[in-house]
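Table S2 (continued). Query chain:
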Amino acid sequence: MQASYSNKRVPQSTLKLMHRVYKYVLPSVKQELTQLRQLAERISSEELRTQALNSIRDKKFHCQGGSVYAVANMAYLPILIPLIVALQTISDYLDNLCDRSTSLDPDDFRMLHQSMLDAATPGASLQNYYMHRDDSDDGGYLQHLVRTCQQQIAKLPAYSIVQEQVLELIGLYSDLQVYKHICTESREVKLLEWWRKHQASYPHLQWNEFAAAAGSTLAMFLLFLAASDEHLTLAEAEQMKINYFPHVCSLHILLDYLIDQEEDKQGGDLNFCNYYENESLMIERLQFIVGRAREDVKQLPASRFHSLIIEGLLALYLSDPKVREQSEVRHISKQLMKNSTLSRIFFFINSRWIRIRRL
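Corresponding output:
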């Protein structure tokens, strides 16, 4: 596969990658989130303002991690980082709204996530995404995020090639968010009905692993990066999606759920890690998915870069302070960190350093 970022300019060593993270990603993401925080602070609705500010404060590392893809094509860094931060912020903000919502209306959740579909559709009209809920006065915050995505996407030379794949992934993401947030007695029923529609394509996965994959934005960010190559072909775009979905994406969200188990228990939120019969099976399945993800990314251009992404995911989540606060999660973390590569250990140390310094 020939792509503009499959060359020596792509960071394929831990030192070069972290150099670019410290020099470019962290300052740029901080700048983007500072501007978004200022907008969020002006939201009239107390509930919407609270959830917008909380998503920026508590989930900053999602934007930092996602923006790592931008350093694979430095010429498009000023386009990719605002795009990735805006889409990830929509995702995090809506996740907060749905998790902490007094609404259990699937139409409400579906309409909120229409914003992600519009964000990934150049020229799509902005809509009232809050039409099914009482709290609606966000001062244009959500529409601003949608417009930012559209503006940056328009600057990607091959976005028309990846758009179908991006919208497919957002469709799955939206389905998941709707079904996992409706009334408690209907959640599993709807999720299992949804899974049965896709099961034949992923027979080696359990339903919760597929659902986790649907909850990840990483394949979208990979496709944004791919769209920065004007010579990208449709076949290449389709293959890239396959190389990330489901295994890299599933690993991403299962790790996220792993460290959030106690938090989700207290909040009454559905957690996909709770659907393993026991701790041993959870470790076995996570290790299986790690192995499949590693094999998948070997087929990508600049494959070493994507291998580092996987090691970085493991390090980022397993170094989270939440791990130390949960004895079972701490034990699982130790099992997953056994026989770690040097790059994973390096990223583990750096992830802790970034949190300590609040970079």
